[in-house]
Amino acid sequence: MAEQRARPNKGLILEICGSNPRFISSVHHGLYETPLQDFYTNLNLDEALIFEAGSWSLRNSRDAEFRNLIRTERVYDLFNRINNEGFPVLNRNKRLQKWKEKHEQLNPFRGRNLRERLERVDSTDIRELIEKLEQPTKTYVFECQYHDTKMARDGDNQGIEIMRFQKVYPKKGNIVPAFASEIARILGEYPTHYEPVSKPQKTRIPTFFDS
Fold first, then answer.
1. pTM for the complete prediction?
2. Residue range 83-99, pLDDT digits in tens
3. What is the Cα–Cα distance from 89 to 112, expressed in whole angstroms?
4. Which of 141, 187, 145, 167 is nearest to 45 (CA)?
5. Alpha helices, DSSP H, located in 41-122
């Protein structure tokens, strides 16, 4: 039976990401390029954030090992690789205070049974994610940087993405909160229901009295 969980908010995202500019921007870029709305009902919030940040960073660095792993289409291996590297980073950054209880509610699977949860995702949705992961990353700029970035490419603006949720001329202290607000907005459109992983039934061994 499906259960419901809350939607993330800006404050929680800031506490999870620890206001780390590199991590929180990678989360946003991953969400923008490889959305996980079809996976989210089977993921903890932390797993979704780690996957988006980790997969985008590895794609952006053109990591050959990760590209080869994408081609295998083994979605559990992809998540497992990113989790192994990403959770230590997340745990170092995480500063849970006000939103600790909400964080627990948004991570109902407690990190268990990931393989079984991913097996519940439709094969078409997996294929769509793989196709997006195979694409090159975009270059994200503030609106004030767009012209210079385009001119540096001899007028080619392909793959340049203006972050319109940021101020045209952003101030340093406002950039990370704006990322958090946009991440919360995107995740706020994801499904809120989830299906708990059922515990395997114990097999009853027949006894003499059953015959």
1. 0.91
2. 999 999 999 999 999 99
3. 19
4. 187
5. 45-60, 64-72, 75-93, 100-105, 114-119
